[in-house]
Structure formats: structure tokens, C-alpha cells
Amino acid sequence: MSKSKVLKLAFFLMAGLVVAHAVGYKVEKGGAITISAWYEGLTRVPMKEAFVNVFAPGDKAFFQKGRTDRRGRFSFYPDRPGQWYVLINDGRGHGVVVKVRVRELRAGETCSPGLPLYFKFIVGLSIIFGVFGAVSLWKGRGGG
Description:
The longest helix is centred in the last third of the chain and has 24 residues, at 117-140. Helices cover 29% and strands 35% of the residues. The protein has one domain: Immunoglobulin-like (Sandwich). It is elongated, with a radius of gyration of 20 Å. By secondary structure, it is α+β, with helices and mostly antiparallel strands.
């Protein structure tokens, strides 16, 4: 395999790894708060059995703890309004802190923060192009 093909292959593999390392989530409000967590990548893979700690507004001790189900979901019933924090961690370096503002809840209210996957992929490719461009420029000037 030529050096050019190896570099192209490495380039696309690195782009996939950059995207695959992210964690996404969605919050659903309606009586209970349900959070779905997944690993971002070309497909969404649920964070199965991830550790979850829920902290109520103003409390230092956790309100509730548990694990996500096989679909990466976790639910809890808040007992007061305010800013809640939900920490989700798979124990292998992937995690997210979800801030949930509890006011008067309406059935079926949802939010899904973050950038779209295609945008994250474009940013990852841009970073990789920038690194390869800088290395090529450096080598072209006799630096290596």
C-alpha cells in the first residue's frame, strides 16, 4: 500500500475516532425526568449500565443514584424546582454532566443540547486537515 493511501486511511480513521469519543444526551420532562445517554459516532450507541448520580438544588449529597438501562435511559422524580445536576459516567472515561432546570413541568417537554453530529464531524476533519497541513508546511521548509 502506498504512503499516500496509508495517510488517507489514517486520516479517515482519526476523524471517526474524534467523533466517536463524544457523549450525547436528551432530556425528557413530564412528571418524571428521563435522560437518555449515548456514545456519539456514526451511529448512536446507548450508554448501557452507566453510573448515575442525581443532585438536587443546594444539596451536596446525592438525591438519587443508580444505573442506566439497556437503552441508556435513567429517570427520576424531582421533589422541588431549581437547577438539578445529573452525572452520568460509564467508568471507562466517558461521561457527561447534565443540568436540568426544573420549573413547572409540562408533559412531553424535551430538549437535546449540543451540536449536530455532521457539524462535529466537519470540525474533526478540519482539525485533522490543519494538523496535516502544519506538518506538511514544516517539512516543506526543511524543518524535518
